[in-house]
Design goal:
This protein has 270 residues and is of the alpha+beta class. It has twelve helices and nine strands.
Length: 270
Amino acid sequence: SDFADNINVDLRTIQRWEKGITLIKSEKEEEIVLETLMPYQLIHNLNAVVPIPTFYNLRTRKYSLNERANEMPKASWFKDQIDIRSKSLRTIDFDYDLKYIKSFIQSQRKDQNYLNEELIKEAIRLLPELNFVLTGGSGYYRGHCIFLPLKEEALKKLREKEITTKNLRVSDLTNPKLSDRPIYYAYDITADCNDTIFYTITEFLRYFRDIENKNYLCCSYSDRDDSYDLSQKAGMKIVWEDLALQQELGLIHPPRFSQGNFNEFLAGLE
């Protein structure tokens, strides 16, 4: 009944969907996506007279057409095809995209106060190249990438656990083009499948491949299991891990704070 209220339908409608008596109306698909975080393509595949069998990983929130394809590809997959681009990738339009970003981040963090809207807006202004969304062929939302250009003081506080990502504010940001050592913080990266992950990762790898100032530092805090090996092979080094939280959440790998750069990984690419 709570789910029915949240997407503005009556309980009997939900029951008819569950029993396969009726299909979901197309205008309701977006509301279901925002409420459940399930990918649009997953809903499309299942919401059909003849459903397309689709695998979905509730932990990583990725879908695929076969179970094996949900595993994260090796780092070489991204490097070897780094110049393949997606026409469906664009810089975040704050006013238009906020409802998607807000829903995904707050639901994943289970905290309605986690997202600082002004922080995201300023990050887009300072670093439009690394703040982007991807959409599907019909314009539906597939994922986003949000990087913050941080000041040294903010990085130090994050690294030493004086603050968390939730505590970051606009005053912690700076123009990376004016810094001797730019600091890029991966605030949030969301993708509905490995195909979307490919375009997301190659987009920001091209950015770091092509920038003139190679004296940069990239850092992140992540509790995702599927990115553990990939990030280290690309050049990120673990600073600390939260073993207690790993047990609490039942994760394969512990939540961790990492930093590094992709210079060695990208060496030789033009």
